[in-house]
Design a protein that fits this description.
alpha/beta; phosphoprotein; anti-sigma factor antagonist activity; Anti-sigma factor antagonist
């Protein structure tokens, strides 16, 4: 499956809506999209993961890179609408304590 990435901007917030799977094949495309956004000083980047069906450790690596860039450029990276399956990756790796995560969807498939 592919990854669809839709970027929009509302009220100085970059919204990135993802749909599909984040894995070794789709992660480079995602990284190319979010890193430039997080490297804008003071920017807020909200990544909507509601329609992400699957994510592996490669996806986690992309988000870690984005978070590092956000801290370096004093911007914010916020993850929203994580389904249980994706949220568990952040939970078992301890990354839920590092990321700002809003609106976890319980029981999502």
């Amino acid at each position: 499956m592919n990854l669809s990435i839709d970027v929009s901007e509302k009220n100085d917030v970059h919204e990135v809506k993802l749909s599909g799977e984040i894995d070794v094949y789709t992660a480079p495309k995602l990284k190319e999209t979010i890193l430039p956004l997080t490297k804008q000083k003071g920017a807020t980047v909200k990544i909507d993961l509601e329609k992400v069906q699957y994510m592996d450790s490669t996806g986690l690596g992309v988000f870690i890179s984005g978070l590092k860039a956000a801290k370096e450029y004093e911007s914010k990276l916020i993850l929203v609408n994580l389904k249980d399956r994706v949220f568990r990756l952040f939970d078992i790796t301890g990354l839920k304590e590092v990321f700002t995560i809003e609106d976890t969807i319980r029981g999502g498939k």
